[in-house]
Amino acid sequence: MESEKKSHAVSDVGAWAMNVISSVGIIMANKQLMFSRGYAFSFATTLTGFHFAVTALVGLVSNAAGYSASKHVPMWELLWFSIVANMSITGMNFSLMLNSVGFYQISKLSMIPVVCVLEWILHNKHYSREVKMAVVVVVIGVGVCTVTDVKVNAKGFMCACIAVMSTSLQQISIGSLQKKYSIGSFELLSKTAPIQAISLLIFGPFVDYYLSGKFITTYKLSYGALFFILISCSLAVFCNVSQYLCIGRFSAVSFQVLGHMKTVCVLTLGWILFDSQLTLKNIMGMLTAVIGMIIYSWAVELEKQANAKTTLPIKNSLTEEEIRLLKEGVEIALLKDVEPSETKT
């Protein structure tokens, strides 16, 4: 039992580490690809379509080779999930374009309370006081790190609301679909990735044209840009798989809290690699966020221990004595049923 717990903990840490490393790596690769001083590839939605196309190809090869088993999930649920996921991607892009960086970061921070409320409404899930306190500390810390100027307009506010709601629903749906159909994270991803890839590659260029005023057909592709596109797509496979793995293992709220560690890593790497400014305010915010994450881990562990104490042990097998008594009871019941018919004859 102890070895099982240890192996489970190791796999949890591995899934989370893969998500953080791949997410931070893809942000660094995309920054070099999209940066005006880099390769100026300003087609974020279409690039996401490339990501899901490569992910779908990996899933297809894995199924064909027998490394993963395909389980049935109704097509309407896959379509609904893909629509919500694509709304999340498009909404985030529009929110970043129409809003200030400060308001964009606030909208991302609001996902934690939105996920909590949605899980309470949809799954009747309740959170302890310690968990709520830890979430507040994390939000304050990341807010201090990232939020600068805050400017709001009507269109930007609507796009931010759509992005937050759709992203929160997507993350909750990943966990509920895995539990509902007993399907693994990679199997679910391999089913949804083709639908997302096709829709994003069809509509993505038009969304990017609205965002940047340029069609992807006018972009002059260089070997350097192609190299970073391939790097970005490769990292996207690990990022997508690890996201599904993490939400399957943790909850949507835990994934959001742990996800803010990526923000801290991105700020640090931006300072190291891209000469981004790192002020005392950023450092204090990062330290507060890390403390909040530690408190959150402690609070979740307390909640698990409390639930384990209140849950009564369930018997999985009968003893030999119970089986004998059960057989005797069945025999007596059969004799009672037979006796009236014998007296009549």
Automatic annotation (TrEMBL):
Keywords, A to Z, come to: Membrane, Transmembrane, Transmembrane helix
Q: Which GO terms describe its cellular component?
A: membrane
Where in or outside the cell?
Answer: Membrane
How would you describe this protein's topology in the membrane? Multi-pass membrane protein
Q: Where is the signal peptide?
A: none
Segments crossing the lipid bilayer: 41-66, 78-96, 133-150, 223-241, 253-274, 280-299
Q: Which residues form the Sugar phosphate transporter domain?
A: 25-297
User: Which SUPFAM superfamilies does the record cross-reference, listed alphabetically?
Assistant: Multidrug resistance efflux transporter EmrE (SSF103481)
* Pfam families listed in its UniProt record: TPT
Q: Read off the InterPro entries from this record.
A: EmrE-like, Sugar_P_trans_dom, TPT_transporter
- PANTHER family in UniProt: SOLUTE CARRIER FAMILY 35
Instruction: From the Swiss-Prot or TrEMBL record, give the protein name.
Output: Sugar phosphate transporter domain-containing protein
Task: State the organism's lineage.
Answer: Eukaryota, Viridiplantae, Streptophyta, Embryophyta, Tracheophyta
